Amino acid sequence: MPTITLDGIVKNYGGDQNAVEHLDLTIDDGDFMCLLGPSGCGKTTTVRMIAGLENITDGSITIGDTVVDEPRANRFVPPEKRDIGLVFQSYALWPHLTVADNVDYGLKLRKMPKAERAERVSQMTQKLGIAPYVDRYPAQLSGGQQQRVALARMLAVNPKLMLLDEPLSNLDSRLRLEMRAELKRIHDEFKATVVFVTHDQWEAMTLATRVAVMNQGVLQQVGSPMDIYDRPRNRFVANFLGVPPMNFIEMGEETPQRVYAARFLEAHGVPASAAGSVGVRPEALTVAQPDPSRPSGDLVLPGRIESVMPTGGSWTVEAAVGGQRVYATTLQRGSLQPGDEVELVAPAAQAHVFDTDDERVEVTA
């Protein structure tokens, strides 16, 4: 499978702001790369440029050993010659063709012999669990079944590269869970290079071998899902990943909660004036009884419980710290009650410090 190299990619649609801004990204052979970010961040534009559905404004795209788009050298390889499989959010199935004919469509365009096509269609429909529906039309299928048909059609032509643009967003939560497992199995079985566009952090965390987080056309961070979650490079990445989202204490405001964060920073040799904010994820906080002898190296936020909310397998505790709401998650409610005076405690390794430019500051535990 090919390695994809995006070198200084720029995309501009004619306005003052670039849709994608000098993007450098390498997608390795066999990667399951998720492009993650909010709507309008440039992730779909990026995957469409890889596919050849959009021309780049500047930079170059290389797939394997072939430069497929480089405006300065007047090079452009059309989509049909890039050996790429595409699945879109809308599935784009032919409504007048049966499941079998939809899966066969790409094979027919490649002029594969009829017997080989029939065998390949049979293989793909069986692998994806849609063999019982080969004589049905798309309108007679559920959303999950249509998704499997779209995947079977793509996989039937055995592409070197699979591009998936939010293919699960039209499914309900149960089907999304099933299809995530299906996509993971397909990647493991076919050893394909996959680029997957999503705004859903859980899809990225559960599917990807690597995640590229984007915002306003700019690449923010690339790494394994847990690297990005545990060591976000900047405040945007820290805030975008996580449910409930990360709690932040603003260091530029004279508030009671700032005092607690300043004590933590000073204990680790970081001047409070050098920090723009201190963040901690809700699951990193332990809800404990006040303890004056607690070690100074921990981040300790004294507060009062406002509410204890069940979320199924865990509880979300809302506490007032100074004038700010801070959230913690716990697997055990215990005796926690609204009105209780508590301490929300996080070890130093679980606290995230960002400077006044919102960039990560390393803190020695």
TrEMBL record:
GO cellular component: ATP-binding cassette (ABC) transporter complex, substrate-binding subunit-containing
Molecular function GO labels: ABC-type transporter activity; ATP binding; ATP hydrolysis activity
Keywords: ATP-binding, Nucleotide-binding, Transport
Matches recorded under Pfam families: ABC_tran, TOBE_2
Gene3D superfamilies documented for this protein: 2.40.50.100, Nucleic acid-binding proteins (2.40.50.140), P-loop containing nucleotide triphosphate hydrolases (3.40.50.300)
All residue ranges annotated as the ABC transporter domain in the record: 4-241
SUPFAM superfamilies from the UniProt entry: MOP-like (SSF50331), P-loop containing nucleoside triphosphate hydrolases (SSF52540)
InterPro entries membership: AAA+_ATPase, ABC_transporter-like_ATP-bd, ABC_transporter-like_CS, ABC_transpr_MalK/UgpC-like, Mo/tungstate-bd_C_term_dom, NA-bd_OB-fold, P-loop_NTPase, Transp-assoc_OB_typ2
This protein's name: ABC transporter ATP-binding protein
Organism from which the protein derives: Leucobacter ruminantium
